[in-house]
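Q: What would this complex look like in 3D?
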Amino acid sequence: MSYTYDYPRPSLTVDCVVFGLDDEDLKVLLIKRGVEPFQGRWALPGGFVRMDESLEDAARRELQEEAGIRPNLMEQLYTFGAPERDPRGRVVSVAYFALVKLSDHRVHAATDAREAAWFSVYDVPKLAFDHADILATAHQRLKGKVRYQPIGFELLPPKFTLTQLQRMYEKILERELDKRNFRKKLLAMELLEELDEVEQDVSHRAARLYRFDHKKYKQLEKAGFNFEL
Amino acid sequence: MSYTYDYPRPSLTVDCVVFGLDDEDLKVLLIKRGVEPFQGRWALPGGFVRMDESLEDAARRELQEEAGIRPNLMEQLYTFGAPERDPRGRVVSVAYFALVKLSDHRVHAATDAREAAWFSVYDVPKLAFDHADILATAHQRLKGKVRYQPIGFELLPPKFTLTQLQRMYEKILERELDKRNFRKKLLAMELLEELDEVEQDVSHRAARLYRFDHKKYKQLEKAGFNFEL
DNA sequence: ACCGCATAGTGTTGGATGGACACTCCGTCA
DNA sequence: TGACGGAGTGTCCATCCAACACTATGCGGT
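A: Here is my prediction, written as structure tokens for the whole assembly.
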């Protein structure tokens, strides 16, 4: 089977930058390439767009196939189309940006006979194609966006302590925050539901758990509220 | 001549949302379609991407061909790829966002035997394809971006009065600003060069002209300065 | 020459917000 | 029961922001 057109067409792919967070660092999901070009190199998960699926559907399908991951939060990042970005010919790639709770996804990282792994964003191996650019763009977007949209919660488990929350922001923004000011500000937004539970299995005083109130945020957002830092 | 591939490929186009500003309103550039589908409908300027040009080059080429316009400021907006967005088949379009000084471009609007015109953003005819979505996305982006990046200056002539500047922000943000607070804030940034000139041909006291200092802004930006409102 | 008009230009105050800063509380483990 | 590690909590000061009204100037018409 082959397909013929009057004018040449670029290939169209999607690539995904999936971020996760663990106790050490902000992590990104990479896949080891099994075929040329760049065989053996690490790369972002991704692949060709099918004719009957939307771009985001393609990104979600590739993530599912290559790493068994179904992110809650996914959005389009940028489209990379430099003529020489792929040695096989003209390939335009729509990049997506996703956040996952690492606790949900640590196990599934290596599926489908492909090698998949989480790497610290600050210590990434040499990547295939222009994937280093794509990753840099995504990282920048995350750093910018986390300050004015409450997306960081997608990186944490559903119930978290205020210290976990603060560490998350500190790792993403790459600067330290003041504990008292941070708590004051977050609690003043009234977007955190205080639970009657505390963390378990810690060898010191256990911290209270909170949950992010998505419903309330959507309401406030409609009313013109702006989340900030 | 024809081109054959092992797998089907979508067509790839670019579309441009070009904003301009005049005394009345924020304007957007539209082209009347001369061919099916949507013959006779107004649409965003755009066209197919060639195999050897980057996406932005394609957008600039189409703008030049269809409307004789060379914007200073142009950036990628979003990629639209819903499977049914074009009745001719699968067409994925990378949308670009541009700002121009209308004074430079009023004349050239209708060139190349195509009909091109500026429409008020608040009174746009029914558009072809999903161009209404693209326009809405671009308009939203403009409203958001103008507050934290000094891009609004691309809509004004090189020399402008503070009142013109304020009107520009008011039209884009769709709310009134306080004259004194606005001037205080803008002048405090020290990004406006005060010229020894005043506006001409007005039948009242002439206002002083200013120029935006791009060089100084780039320096301050590197030093961590953030333009805001 | 004068007057009217339209727009230019200019400061102060009160309230809210943001950043700096240090100690006590509590649970665990040795 | 004492030491350790992290949880939790309030004040002060500086800065930013919003609200607010009058005088100055140049032109055009009479």
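A: To summarize the key features: The two ends of chain A are 54 Å apart (CA to CA). Chain A has two domains: 11-145, 152-222.
Q: Very helpful, thank you.
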